[in-house]
Amino acid sequence: MDLQKLTIGKALNLGLRHAMEQDPKVLIMGEDVGKLGGVFRITDGLQKDFGEQRVLDTPLAESGIIGTAVGLAVRGFRPVCEIQFEGFIFPGFDQISSQLAKLHYRTQGKVKMPVVIRVPFGGGIGAVEHHSESPESLFAHIAGLKVVSISNAADAYWGIQEAIRSDDPVMFFEPKKLYHSGALKMEIDTETSPGRVFGSHVVRAGTTATVVAYGPSVKVALDAAAAAEDEGKSLEVIDLCTLSPLDLGPVFESVRKTGRLVAVSEAPLESSLTSEIAARVQQECFYSLESPVLRVAGFDTPYPPAKLEEHYLPDLDRVLHAVDRSLAW
């Protein structure tokens, strides 16, 4: 047993390192991922230790990064692409949706696409335009992609390795504002795998209402649950982790127990993952619901300037207000 206390950022770095040690076909590519170690330093030290042939600094061209990764995957490599900020991903959207997501299916499984696209996403870092988006719903809608979002260091460490081992393409969304949070450090056994990482799981048990979240919103949900406990309310918090295909079994089970659900996400409300969660829970748990499914999300506007983002992002008060509304129904 090798126990290490890690932030999410350090866990990702160590997970990438172990994947590269275990398989010489694993490559890392992206803007500034080599000498600089990435703008968030997630790939820090990897080029130094594995060389420029395996950790490649690319031009500022997301379509080129993804297109090159597709070609490398056809030749048997396992590329891990870093998109520097989520708002820069759209020049590569065509390659992701038309090629990466389709080739395994189109060739009846003959051509595998073991490509991981790492996407720092979400707000809370005081950044300029195009640096704080939440586009995960767009990719969850594309058949052929697995879409995941981690919220803690253990899932980051084991999840990135599981994603790299996959023969199907994985969009790996990482909450950038939590990368280096000391408060979220976790002691991780880096040698003994916990088994299956992806899929929904209960991170706090409760009986009054269910709160489901993913990525950066999981911490908000947990903070809300801690505050609600002082008021005598017991909130069950579920981390979705896998956004496509959605694993809603644990959510259904929880809602049948509590009768209430609040879904939380930073993404705009309309046509979002919270929309799908609400629809599916209503369909599967209709007779268990004591109130409508309520959603707490970003607003249906472009992401605001940094000085306004605290009013845009879901916070503890908005989650607790939704819980109160559900209980008052």
UniProtKB/TrEMBL annotation:
The protein's required cofactors: thiamine diphosphate
Keywords recorded for this protein, A-Z: Oxidoreductase, Thiamine pyrophosphate
Claim: Transmembrane helix is one of the keywords in the record: no
Keyword Oxidoreductase: yes
Domain (Transketolase-like pyrimidine-binding) ranges: 6-181
SMART domains per record: Transket_pyr
SUPFAM superfamilies with a match to the protein in the record: Thiamin diphosphate-binding fold (THDP-binding), TK C-terminal domain-like
UniProt cross-references to Gene3D superfamilies, sorted A to Z: 3.40.50.920, 3.40.50.970
PANTHER family linked to this entry: PYRUVATE DEHYDROGENASE E1 COMPONENT BETA SUBUNIT, PYRUVATE DEHYDROGENASE E1 COMPONENT SUBUNIT BETA
UniProt-recorded name of the protein: Alpha-ketoacid dehydrogenase subunit beta
Organism in which the protein naturally occurs: Amycolatopsis ultiminotia
UniProt lineage: Bacteria, Bacillati, Actinomycetota, Actinomycetes, Pseudonocardiales
